[in-house]
Amino acid sequence: MAVSNNIIATINFIALICSIPIIFTGIWLASKPDNHCIRSLPWPIVFVGILFLLLAFTGFVGAHWNKPGLLSFYLFCNAALIVTGIILLILAFIVTHPSGAFSVPGREYDEYRYMGYSEWLRDHITDPENWGSIRACLASSSTCTKMPPTVCGYQYVNPITWINPTNPMGDVDCIIWNNDPNQLCYNCDSCKAGVLGNLRKEWKEANVILIIAVIALICLYLIAFNAYKNSQTGSKK
Q: Where is this chain's protein located in or outside the cell (predicted)?
């Protein structure tokens, strides 16, 4: 039984160390300038990392001090976390798969179509209740300072001053744009779409961390379960 417990303790010690990058990934996302105004989205990654850490710690303690009941609880929680992680990955793929970004000739950056993003993402981020606080936060950053749609035909003066649109009826945002630094295009669909585009890009990167975490949990569970089963079989002989 000592050998089996040593195996479980060792792999959980490694998993405990691996949980630290997951937590820091969530903190990194929260510190990004464009995520600073949307505080609720990056923290699930931190939450998953903390659960991963607690789970690994539980498995390590149960194995190192030979606590069969704690090991059984550890295996149950591990299985539950695997299922939760898979569900989160499926939902994240559904939410982040649609993209509203499109390239415009003569522009070094993409423009965005608001309706090109998933309905959940649009409703969660840009509904009137949430967008009011997000908009106020964006006004203090450099986000959305240069987003009058190309179709409007605005003449560039500087990043926050565009004049004489040649096609003011080309898009609803053409009328909304205002050179007032406190207004600009913060109420434009193109600004909302730009925020969603940045979030989508960073969450797709964060999904890679989640995929690695789920694969690690599955491997961890299989090794720990076999070691635990062998230890239980050995104790009955």
A: Membrane
Burial label, 2 (beta-carbon count in 10 A; 0-12, 13-18, 19+): exposed
State how far the Cα of 189 lies from the Cα of 182, in Å rounded to an integer.
16
237 residues of the chain, pLDDT tens digit each? 466 777 778 888 888 887 887 788 778 777 766 566 766 666 777 887 888 888 888 888 888 787 778 888 888 888 888 888 888 888 888 888 877 776 766 666 667 777 888 888 888 777 777 787 787 777 766 656 656 777 788 887 776 677 778 888 888 888 888 878 777 788 888 888 878 887 787 778 778 878 888 888 888 888 878 777 766 665 555
**CA 231/CA 196 separation, integer angstroms:** 50
